[in-house]
Amino acid sequence: MTTRTVVLCAHAYGLLRDSCPGCDAEQEQPHAAEPVAVKPAWAKRAIRRCRRCALVPSHRIHKAHQ
Fold first, then answer.
1. 48 with 57: CB under 8 angstroms?
2. pLDDT at position 6, please?
3. Is residue 65 within 8 Å of 32, Cβ to Cβ?
4. What is the distance between the alpha carbons of residues 39 and 28, in angstroms, rounded to a whole number?
5. 48, 36 Cβ separation under 8 angstroms
6. Residue 58 pLDDT
7. What is the dihedral of CA 42, 45, 49, 54, to 10 degrees?
């Protein structure tokens, strides 16, 4: 059996697993992306997401910060 590791967001919730009010708030504020690879149980491969907002690193909110 394979042990699954939970990747935590910047607010200590499971990324792509739990609903996080901190990530929801970060989605409204431009910020630098903090990309991390996450492999949910339902996915066949890892998905890259920002630890601060759970959006894809290429989302416009990250470009607005530059």
1. yes
2. 85
3. yes
4. 25
5. yes
6. 92
7. 0
Q: Report pLDDT digits (tens) over 32-50.
A: 999 999 988 888 999 999 9
The token pair at 46 is 């890892």
Please report where in the chains the tokens 């530059």 appear, as a residue: 66
How far apart, in Å, are the Cα atoms of 33 and each of 4, 5, 8, 11, 16? 24, 22, 15, 15, 16
Q: Kind and range of the H or E element at 21?
A: helix 21-26
What φ, ψ does residue 34 adopt, rounded to 5°?
Answer: -120, 75
For residue 51, the SS3 value is: coil
Query: What's the burial of 41, exposed, middle or buried (CB within 10 Å: 0-12/13-18/19+)?
Result: exposed
Q: How many CB atoms lie within 10 A of CB 17?
A: 16
